[in-house]
């Protein structure tokens, strides 16, 4: 995911300043090349509602639909999906398997050492998938620790960090590929709880007879409430493309068009945000 999600783990410390210097100071030429090609390749992770292929084989999700709108404004008429696992999005981007990450990826300082981000197009809280009736009364990460619940989350998700922050032993966390696998683990009784974004948990339990999503909540980081923001990611040298993307994104926010694009995927006004990539990167390592 993120959503969704969000990768935390061992990430190479390649700061933006050093990468940009090595690549040249002109901000890259990817935008010019994309305009000439007429198509941009989007790295997606097959996660509803962020970026996925629907039952009819069409690319959709909040990030791809936003990409279509922004890149059309930038003179690039077509988008082409490149599906991969969430944990492979940043390596795939940096090895040029695709041009941008369009997967609702959370912005955090570790990721900002590897890529640069546009400003977030949404903000998000967390939620749990639990058995119907929430028999263990799990409403936040502190509950999971206190009640010694069996805990799962997705590959590379930020929820790993939040659980560890609350005192859960990382080696005891069951890591599954995505929210569907998380739902299956809860339904089968292999775990008591799966953590993900409020949007993904709500979406995946809709047809479940055995599981439900808890009320959204704000995780704690360093003892303080932490709100995540999801954004498009770009290779560190491509500041020109990132900056042009941000200009059009701001226009969509001001006009209300961004919300109209995201609303069909379950987003509400509460998920609209003025957070910046600089804030979430920790004060200026994003370019």
UniProtKB/TrEMBL annotation:
<dbReference type="GO" id="GO:0033294">
    <property type="term" value="F:ectoine binding"/>
</dbReference>
<dbReference type="Pfam" id="PF00497">
    <property type="entry name" value="SBP_bac_3"/>
</dbReference>
<feature type="domain" description="Solute-binding protein family 3/N-terminal">
    <location>
        <begin position="39"/>
        <end position="269"/>
    </location>
</feature>
<dbReference type="InterPro" id="IPR001638">
    <property type="entry name" value="Solute-binding_3/MltF_N"/>
</dbReference>
<dbReference type="InterPro" id="IPR014337">
    <property type="entry name" value="Ectoine_EhuB"/>
</dbReference>
<protein>
    <submittedName>
        <fullName>Ectoine/hydroxyectoine ABC transporter substrate-binding protein EhuB</fullName>
    </submittedName>
</protein>
<dbReference type="GO" id="GO:0051470">
    <property type="term" value="P:ectoine transmembrane transport"/>
</dbReference>
<keyword id="KW-0732">Signal</keyword>
């Amino acid at each position: 995911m993120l959503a969704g999600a969000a990768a935390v783990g061992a990430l190479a410390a390649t700061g933006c300043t050093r990468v940009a210097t090595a690549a040249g100071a002109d901000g890259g030429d990817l935008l010019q090349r994309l305009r000439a090609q007429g198509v941009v390749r989007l790295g997606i992770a097959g996660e509803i509602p962020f970026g996925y292929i629907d039952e009819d084989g069409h690319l959709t999700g909040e990030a791809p639909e936003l990409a279509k709108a922004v890149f059309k404004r930038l003179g690039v008429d077509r988008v082409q999906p490149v599906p991969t696992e969430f944990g492979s999005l940043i390596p795939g981007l940096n090895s040029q398997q695709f041009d941008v990450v369009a997967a609702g990826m959370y912005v955090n300082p570790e990721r900002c050492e590897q890529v640069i981000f546009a400003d977030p197009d949404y903000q998000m809280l967390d939620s749990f998938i639990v058995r119907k009736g929430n028999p263990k009364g799990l409403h936040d990460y502190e509950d999971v620790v206190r009640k010694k619940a069996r805990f799962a989350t997705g590959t590379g998700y930020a929820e790993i960090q939040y659980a560890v922050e609350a005192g859960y032993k990382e080696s005891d966390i069951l890591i599954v590929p995505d929210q569907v696998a998380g739902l299956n683990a809860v339904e089968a009784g292999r775990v008591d709880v799966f953590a993900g974004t409020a949007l993904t948990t709500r979406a995946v339990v809709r047809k479940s007879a055995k599981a439900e999503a808890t009320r959204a909540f704000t995780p704690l980081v360093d003892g303080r409430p932490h709100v995540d923001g999801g954004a498009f990611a770009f290779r560190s040298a491509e500041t020109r493309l990132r900056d042009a993307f941000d200009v059009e994104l701001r226009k969509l926010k001001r006009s209300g068009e961004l919300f109209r694009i995201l609303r069909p995927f379950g987003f509400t006004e509460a998920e609209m945000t003025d957070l910046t990539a600089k804030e979430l990167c920790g004060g200026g390592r994003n370019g």
